[in-house]
Amino acid sequence: SVPGLLLADAPASSSAVMTTMASPYVLEMNDASNASRKLVKPQACTCLDWNPSGTQLVAGSYSGLAKVWSDTGELIHTLSRHEGPLFGAKWSASGEHILTAGIDRTAILWNASTGAETQVYSHHTKPILDLDWQDAETFALSSIDKTVSLCNISKTEPVKIFKGHTDEVNSVKWNASKILLASGSDDKTVRVWNPDSDVPVFTFAEHNKEIYTIQWGCSESEHLIASSSFDAMVKVWDVQTGVCLHTLKKHLGAVYALAFSPDGAYLATGSADHQLFIWSVKEGKLARTYKGRSGIFDASWKNTGDKLAACFADGTCVILDPRQSMEVG
Predict the structure, then answer these.
(1) Residue 212 to residue 190: CA distance in whole angstroms
(2) What is the pLDDT of residue 251?
(3) Comparing C-alpha atoms, which of 85, 4, 99 is closest to residue 51?
(4) Which of 136, 137, 185, 205 is most exposed, with the fewest beta carbons within 10 Å of its own?
(5) 117 with 110: CB under 8 angstroms?
(6) Backbone angles phi, psi at 220, to 5 degrees
(7) What count of other Cβ atoms lies within 10 Å of the Cβ of residue 253?
(8) Are residues 235 and 207 in contact, defined by beta-carbon separation less than 8 angstroms?
(9) Are 172 and 180 in contact (CB under 8 A)?
(10) Rounded CA gap, 185 and 200, in Å?
(11) DSSP one-letter code for 33
């Protein structure tokens, strides 16, 4: 499902700039060129991802543009090819490629160094809502068509298609060791797949409403998977036992963003309620809070753990210091 916040009004903005504050940094996604696209919906920042070395950040928007910045806020590339909102933008494991996908039913592979388009994948019959890389050449896509596809960069058709969800598949993620693939859906379930099988290894179903996104734990906590929902709750599961370890209930609106810290000790959650929370994974308790200027759609930790990027419905991407609580804007 597409977040309802994307249908709200948003302020107009000029060309992309970075505003340096004491902390945080604010990157503007909105661009004057959007006027030529005759868009009447807000240019919300919808997805983002750090490159493997933590030196660059890619963010996609409702305008269909993706932008690549340095970690100091310099605009490096603008990736323009999609016809409609983006819901996924991620670097390959090698850092050589960027993959983007969205409502136009296509995924596009870009050369990360030049910003040039290199391949288009258009096998899904309905909009693509998420993507994730397994390695430097293999990636997965999830779609409104209720399927998850496994793809290779050298092939325009999928290597495999996973079927089983009974509604839109909003999120797809590989675990840290890249052995298991998880998917979250409007059918209120999280399904965990082994690529060698056609049926899920596990199915988790305790949310009261549609699941918007999922995220695996990092390093030593890779057996954990978090799921967030339109029911305003986040659940943390142990895949080894099938047990729900924590149900996190502080948010007052749908939870759209999840991100584990690089050491697996913390979980960041972002919501329609403008709040970004950081939780202790071990205790399931709130550790830090951030008040944003609008709803939060995605979050991503830098590999060093000292920066956390979050994207907002007002068209901004904010880079925070996760070691401090603060109010943004």
Answers:
(1) 10
(2) 97
(3) 99
(4) 205
(5) yes
(6) -70, -15
(7) 17
(8) yes
(9) no
(10) 14
(11) G
Q: ∠ CA(217), CA(220), CA(222), 5° rounding?
A: 35
- The answer to whether residues 183 and 146 touch, using CB atoms and an 8 Å cutoff, is no
Dist CA 165 CA 287 (whole Å): 35
User: Residue 186 is which amino acid?
Assistant: D
* CA distances (Å), origin 296, targets 275, 277, 310: 7, 11, 7
Q: What is the pLDDT of residue 194?
A: 95
> Which residues partner with 128 through β-bridges?
143
Tell me the CB-side half-sphere exposure of residue 158, using CA atoms within 13 A.
Answer: 18
pLDDT at 37: 38
Both tokens of 202, joined, read: 């596990």
How high is the pLDDT of residue 42? Answer: 52
- CA neighbours closer than 13 Å in the CB half-sphere of residue 57: 31
Three-state SS for 4?
Answer: helix
Placement of tokens 């430097």 in the chain: 136
Residue 9 DSSP one-character state = -
Report the Cα–Cα distance between both ends of the chain, in Å, rounded. Answer: 28
In the numeric block, which tokens belong to residue 149? 């596809």
Q: Name the residue type at position 231.
A: D
Rounded to whole angstroms, the Cα distance separating 36 from 49 reads 27
* CA–CA separation, 303 and 262 (whole Å): 6
273's tokens: 């309620």
b/e per residue, 63-102, with b = 16+ CB within 10 A? bbbbbbbebebeeebebeebebbbbbbbbbbeeebbbbbb
Can you say how many angstroms the Cα of residue 214 is from the centroid of all Cα atoms in its chain?
9
Are 268 and 323 spatial neighbours (Cβ–Cβ below 8 Å)?
no
Q: Residue 137: exposed, middle, or buried by beta-carbon count in 10 A (0-12, 13-18, 19+)? A: middle
What backbone torsions phi and psi does residue 132 show, to the nearest 5 degrees? -160, 145
Q: What length is written for the chain?
A: 329
CB half-sphere exposure, 40, CA atoms < 13 A = 0
For the chain, which ranges sit under pLDDT 70?
A: 2-25, 28-42, 325-329
Q: Which amino acid is at 287?
A: A
pTM comes to: 0.88
